[in-house]
Amino acid sequence: MRQGWDPRYKIWVEHGEPAPPTPPPVIDNTRQPLMSDMTALLNDLSYIPPNNEHNEPTQGDIGETSNEPTQATRNEFEELYASANEELYPGCDYVTRLDFMAKFTYFKAKGRLTDSIFNEMLEFFQNVFPISKGFKLPPSYYAIKKTFKTIGLGYESIHACEHDCCLFRGDNNKDLDFCPVCNTSRWKDSNTPGKKVPKKVLRYFPIIPRLQCLYKSSHTAKDMIWHATGKCTEPGKMQHPVHGGAWKKFDTKYPDFAKEPRNVRLGLVADGFNLLGNLSKAYSMWPVILTTYNLPLWLCMKESSFMLTLLIPGPKSPGKDIDVYLRPLIEDLKVLWDQKGVKTILRLPQQEVNMRRWFFMNAAQAVLESN
């Protein structure tokens, strides 16, 4: 009586009236794919514009510098398309063979399963669902990795000196058996017949193909310019590196770089390396991770957005010699920082005219300079 009726009170349900009849459930007999966008993702990654589109030459496979895509690249993506449209078993219309490999690999990473346990699980599944009855399960984890390597998820194995003097790569060092600095053998046993085992191996995950994927995919291309189009929800507070003084100082120093919002801003993080040698805890591996600050504030520091770039081998800390292991990354950053940059396909759904056009991608060293 004092406040009147609540304007949100539309249906009387507590005054003796019968409840409205429940609508009959809608039964959908068609089962939708669990990951229906797999084909769309492949379309983004394998897209090659015609020669006459925007008067530009065609781009090769991700990370390649040739103007024409190789036939091997086309065949690899044809196999991926075949797996994306291949039934896991006869009559299965909701999970494809590629879906199974992607989801099962995700479970391996989430559950931190070892390769041996993962292979034993696949072997058990093959016994329960034999190939003779039409089931098309992957034979091993190695086969799954080989499949996904096509879309840029591989890495380079680079041999390193036991004493962190150099990397056995490049025209001058790749064929050497002894370190040119300390003359230490590259191999555990130089007299082993056949394939020799190196003492240290650096794993490098090339960054250029993965940065290109962020722009080639319609799912992430729009997020890569958020730093220029997004708004701070609480003015006066630093919610993203774009609001910081280091970012603005870098833009002032390099105005040509700053005027193109699609240029990439990267931060470098290394975990565990004992620079001064005064830590008591011993490490066996040192990861180097890149963060992409172009992304929105709710994505750039998310674990799924981190790019593992280097895995520096142990057991001893690289210390001040960590620069030796950073050389492959620095070389790629120099290529990106060059005025020519790297030609990359851009996919932005909101741009109808320029949905697919070329642009030059550079990588900034703002965080490194500010530190």
| Structure classification | alpha+beta
Return residue spans where pLDDT drops below 50 for at least 5 consecutive residues. Answer: 31-35, 50-69, 349-371
The helix content, as a percent range, equals: 25-40%
Sheet with the most strands: spatial strand order? 1-2-5-4-3-8
Tell me the major beta sheet.
6 strands, mixed
Please work out how many helical segments DSSP would assign. Answer: 13
Total tally of structural domains: 3
Shape: extended
Organism: Tanacetum coccineum
Protein name: Transposase
InterPro entries: Transposase_21
Region (Disordered): 49-69
Structure in words:
With 371 residues, this protein is α+β, with helices and mostly antiparallel strands. Helix content is 30%, strand content 12%. β6 (342-347) and β7 (356-361) form a beta hairpin. The longest helix has 15 residues, at 97-111. The model is unreliable at 31-35, 50-69 and 349-371 (pLDDT under 50). It comes from Tanacetum coccineum. It holds the Pfam family Transposase_21. This is Transposase.
Short description:
It comes from Tanacetum coccineum. The protein is an alpha+beta fold.
Keywords:
371 residues, two-stranded antiparallel sheet, extended, disordered C terminus, Transposase_21, Transposase
